[in-house]
Specification:
The chain has 485 residues and is mainly α. The chain is built from 21 helices and two strands. Helix 14 packs across helix 15. It comes from Xylanibacter muris.
Length: 485
């Protein structure tokens, strides 16, 4: 039996937390003396009131959270957070269409970075800060953030951790999950502050450096300028963007081991990290060659543009320093593969994840060996550890659902009237939480405002499923989930 009282209680407490995040945007609005103050105050009032109602329904709840409760509370939290998160856009009149406002907010929290706003530079500073903040909060997970800051707020936190974190293998740094969460968020905060300082010293304004650092380390992609990173026309800023996007795509537990424990050999020996680096290297060199031979780029510009776009796509960030839509079409295929694979599990990025790619390759190699030695016992080993059969089964189930949901969504879009290339890349972009697409109808430097409402709602669902890795959302639609036993 689902424990609805604890679910109401947790959602109510999280809504109060969301209202505190909105309060920080009020401070920004007051500083710049702009007209979005009332939008945030009204939104805070609605959010706090809804939180009180939820806590009333959840009064006298115990802290016993079952696995089913955890999956429901995680999915419900992301849906509800996005609903109340869109209120500043709607109440302020910055986005008048509900479907578009919900899409923009879901894109923020899931760190997708796709935007329906044609001119972000026309928005007030408070709204721009809210867009960046939604990405930063969603980078490692809304509920996971709560476990780190207020562990007593979420009972059964290990079950919640399993429902919200990415990757087939969950790794912790400490036996207590709340302690691990604090360490991981400390690394995340350290990366954000370092990125902000680096951008500021490279010539960005303080406001831009704060926003771009949150967007970069969350691998989100929202910008305060229409031209994204290309606005600054500064190679140093672009190289810094590459560096921090790359670091944010590494497993944070591995990053902690490397940076804080100075075990550099572990990161070099990690098979997922090696695959991550190999894909980036091969894709960058290939695209460099195409840009030099086809478009006449000089060596440095070809290297910088190719590396930036490859890292942006594989980390599912979505920032850009060049218009990849004007590049040769073969580069779209290369970037599409990067978009699909994604970077490392346990990072802020989306996609299929390199660890699953490593597991798939090892399974394929073992199958070839089985043909020659049918009686051999060949365990699948990743970083010296045998992968349980249950994880292998989950891997193929995830891959099948990932491809199936992308194809279904693309088919729906084609039926509605989206061209084939855009339909496929839009669905892949949303499932991988990337942001930019590759096509002529909606290119990598264009907004998504031309999409009809029906497609916008489909994209919002795909972004949620991609961020929670499909199973967490789809399990709610199974009959067995709602059975009492």
């Amino acid at each position: 039996m689902l424990n609805f009282k604890i679910i109401w209680k947790i959602i109510g407490q999280l809504l109060h937390l969301e209202s505190i995040f909105m309060l920080s945007c009020v401070m920004v609005s007051l500083y710049y003396k702009e007209d979005d103050i009332m939008a945030f105050l009204i939104s805070m009032t609605f959010t706090i009131s809804a939180g009180l109602v939820c806590r009333y329904f959840g009064r006298n709840a115990d802290n016993n959270l079952s696995r089913r409760d955890a999956y429901l509370v995680v999915t419900a939290t992301w849906v509800v957070f996005s609903f109340f998160g869109m209120l500043p856009f709607v109440t302020g009149g910055y986005i008048t269409n509900i479907a578009d406002a919900y899409f923009e907010t879901m894109s923020g929290f899931t760190t997708t970075g796709a935007s329906i706003i044609d001119d972000v530079e026309a928005l007030p500073h408070g709204i721009l800060f809210w867009r960046s903040l939604t990405q930063w909060i969603g980078g490692l997970g809304i509920v996971f953030f709560t476990i780190a800051v207020l562990p007593s707020m979420v009972g059964g936190s290990m079950k919640v951790f399993a429902a919200e974190t990415t990757g087939p293998i969950k790794s912790k740094m400490h036996p207590r999950l709340s302690t691990s969460a604090k360490w991981i968020w400390s690394i995340y905060l350290f990366l954000t502050l370092a990125c902000m300082l680096a951008f500021w010293l490279a010539g960005m304004s303080l406001f831009d450096s704060v926003n771009y650092s949150m967007s970069t380390t969350a691998t989100g992609g929202f910008s305060t300028h229409n031209d994204s990173t290309a606005y600054f026309q500064t190679p140093l800023i672009e190289y810094l963007g590459i560096l921090f996007q790359f670091l944010s795509g590494i497993n944070f537990v591995l990053l902690y081991t490397c940076v804080f424990k100075l075990k550099l050999r572990e990161i070099a020996a990690n098979s997922e990290f090696r695959m991550y680096c190999i894909i980036i290297t091969v894709a960058t060199v290939w695209i460099m060659y195409l840009l030099i031979s086809n478009l006449g780029y000089d060596l440095e510009r070809a290297f910088r543009s190719a590396l930036f776009q490859v890292v942006s796509f594989i980390t599912t960030t979505g920032l850009f320093n060049d218009d990849a839509g004007a590049w040769p079409h073969i580069t779209w295929v290369i970037l599409g593969v990067c978009m699909f694979i994604g970077s490392c599990a346990g990072s802020t990025s989306g996609g299929f994840k390199c660890i699953r790619g490593v597991m798939t390759l090892k399974i394929m190699i073992n199958e070839f060996k089985h043909i020659l030695h049918p009686n051999a016992v060949l365990p699948v080993k990743v970083n010296g550890l045998s992968v349980p059969q249950s994880n292998i089964t989950s891997l193929f189930a995830f891959f099948a659902l990932y491809v199936l949901m992308s194809l279904i969504a693309a088919t729906i879009m084609i039926v509605i009237g989206i061209d084939n290339t855009n339909a496929i890349t839009i669905s892949l972009s949303c499932m991988s939480n990337v942001g930019p697409t590759l096509g002529t109808q909606i290119g990598p430097v264009m907004s998504w405002s031309s999409l009809p409402d029906s497609v916008t709602w489909v994209c919002s669902l795909l972004m949620l499923m991609g961020r929670l890795e499909i199973m967490t959302v789809l399990v709610l639609f199974t009959r067995s989930f709602w059975k009492d036993n």
